[in-house]
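Data follows
____________
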Amino acid sequence: MRDAVVAPVQTGEEREETMQEKPVLLTQAGLAKLREELSHLVNKRRPEIAQRIKMAKEFGDLTENAEYEDAKNEQGFVEGRILTLEQMIRNASIIETDEHTDGSVQLGSSVKVKDDFGEMTYTIVGPAEADAGSGRISLESPVGKALLGRRPGEEISVETPGGSRQVQILKVA
């Protein structure tokens, strides 16, 4: 006879702690973009996929129905993304860009920098909005971390996966 494995019982307080979720740092534009994506998935993609599943069922035997399998897989992906977006929106913490800052780089700041590769402008955002190709870097990235709290004119060393590089801050807005 096997011994039963019993999970410890969590108190309400312990359960609440594990259910608390980390704030998602977003700009107003980032929050609007997430809401737009959620609306598209719920109002357009979800009904389209439901229709595909319905049509695929009409083909008969579901065990060898590739169209049905593909539609069900897509449904799973879309439903997962909807849950993720709802959680991100629920836990959103809006980045307030204050025009009267002390001039240092902060979350939401736009920073013009110069390094060996030339001049670039980055906007410091939360991880959920980061898009390096668009110049939106996470405050948790090596460059984002190095820039936070710095001021124009400062030259800093940034440790990146590609090695160390020197970056001069030209302007903070």
Q: What stands out?
A: Strands lie at 24-26, 92-94, 110-115, 118-125, 136-138, 155-160, 163-172. The first helix runs from residue 12 to 19. Confidence is low (pLDDT under 50) at residues 1-10, 12-19. The chain has two domains: 22-94, 110-172.
